[in-house]
Amino acid sequence: MNKKVYIVTGIGVVLGLIIGYLYYYYIGCASGTCAITSKPFNSSLYGGLMGGLLFNIFVTSPKKS
Q1: What is the pLDDT of residues 13-27, one digit of tens each?
Q2: Burial level of 18, CB count in 10 A (0-12/13-18/19+)?
């Protein structure tokens, strides 16, 4: 794996963490029984995971010749 993979995935993780926290802050869970959005830590981790996976899709691997 090259450096580009880590950079793109890292950007996705950071953006996901931020978006996950913003989701908790502005939308969240009113009753407190939601597993992911009831706590900012859980929401941020889930957002970071999803952001990393999403951005990792856009990294192309070199072709073998």
Answers
A1: 999 999 999 999 999
A2: middle
**Residue 38: pLDDT over 90:** no
For residues 3 and 12, the answer to whether their CB atoms sit within 8 Å is no
**Residue 58 to residues 27, 29, 32, 39, 62, Cα–Cα distance (Å):** 28, 31, 35, 30, 13
Q: Which two tokens stand for residue 46?
A: 């889930």
Dihedral sign from CA coordinates of 13, 17, 14, 60: positive
Task: Note the pTM of the prediction, 2 decimals.
Answer: 0.85
